[in-house]
């Protein structure tokens, strides 16, 4: 069976981890993705999850959200249907753009490293210093 999702670690800083997930999310793969993210986030206090490339089925939805267990805070970029399912999870901080999510994850204000990109781009990360 081929993989229905891919998880890529894009940045690690101390106990912070940033990763991107792409693929098809179905009720059958929701638990597997949750387990994969939980495994990758072991020992992580702050996670950044770019889930914008997840494709969700129209007629069905995963029974459990894929967020990892463990991190105290998770900064998310995600499709809107996921946002409405877990609005009550205090660990989750929703972002509408990559730059605000990156700045919150990294603990940076307007200085330091910055990341550029948006949901319509090819998700190429370009790091630049001020």
Brief rundown of the structure:
The protein has 130 residues and is α/β, with parallel strands linked by helices.
- What is the typical, i.e. mean, pLDDT? 77
Order of strands across the biggest sheet?
A: 1-2-3-4-5
Oligomer, anyone? Answer: single chain
The total count of helices amounts to: 3
Rounded to the nearest angstrom, the distance between the terminal CA atoms is: 46 Å
Which blocks of ≥5 consecutive residues have pLDDT under 50?
A: 109-130
Number of strands: 7
Strand content: 25-35%
Output the radius of gyration: 14 Å
| Helix-strand topology string | EEHEEHEHEE
**Overall shape:** globular
Give the class from helix and strand content and strand pairing. alpha/beta
- Sheet bearing the most strands, described? 5 strands, mixed
Estimate the helix proportion, in percent. Answer: 10-25%
Report on this model:
Helix content is 22%, strand content 32%. Residues 109-130 have low confidence and may be disordered. β1 (5-13) and β2 form a beta hairpin. It has 130 residues and is an alpha/beta fold. The N and C termini lie far apart (46 Å). It has a 5-stranded mixed sheet with strand order 1-2-3-4-5, sandwiched between helices. It has a two-stranded antiparallel sheet with strand order 6-7. It has helices spanning 27-40, 80-85, 98-106, and strands at residues 5-13, 16-24, 46-55, 73-77, 92-94, 114-116, 126-128.
């Amino acid at each position: 069976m081929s993989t229905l999702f891919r998880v890529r670690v894009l940045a690690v800083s101390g106990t912070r981890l940033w990763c991107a997930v792409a693929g098809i999310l179905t009720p059958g793969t929701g638990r597997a993705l949750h387990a994969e993210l939980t495994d990758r986030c072991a020992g992580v206090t702050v996670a950044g999850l770019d889930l914008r490339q997840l494709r969700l089925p129209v007629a069905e939805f995963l029974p459990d959200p894929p967020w990892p267990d463990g991190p105290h805070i998770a900064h998310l970029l995600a499709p809107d249907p996921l946002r409405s399912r877990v609005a009550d999870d205090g660990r989750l901080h929703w972002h509408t753009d990559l730059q605000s999510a990156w700045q919150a994850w990294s603990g940076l204000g307007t200085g330091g490293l910055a990341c550029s990109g948006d949901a319509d781009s090819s998700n190429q990360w370009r790091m630049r210093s001020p």
